[in-house]
Amino acid sequence: MISIQHSAPGIGSKFSLQFQAKIFSHDNPIDLKQHTTEHLKQALEGVSVLVVDDSPDNLLLIKKMLTKSGAIVELAAGGREGLAKAKAGMFAPILMDIQMPEMDGYQVLREILDLGLRAPVIALTAHAMTEDRLKTKEAGFADHVTKPLSFPVLVGTMCAALIKTKPQIDASI
Question: For the whole model, what pTM was predicted?
């Protein structure tokens, strides 16, 4: 409902807007409401994660969050370094910034897919619109996490990506 609270010519107007908001869900099988921070602190225990981002601050923040959840975290400061580390290591999942100079996340993902690597790659971006989520999904990203990051959402999304790809990982052994 939109209503005008005050309006005067040459002075301006004041409006109020009321709406009922719903929590957005993008088929994440983990109900984050049921998980406390304590549960999430062990959720990625022993999982090797590659984080690719061109921002040193983002790399440090994400490493702190994922390490807090038990993950073994490898950092890459850009797309080219991320691709080299993805080729050389066993990571599941990979968290990939999609806006980087030289080689963006979409280009790195195409290379990873062309190489036949099976690690789920999660898009990391400030773009949170539905169209952005669809674009990353169509490109082949396993999921989409938006900045600013939330510990429960980041860890929950990483766990969901692992759950969705578990049969593929087991089948290749």
Answer: 0.74
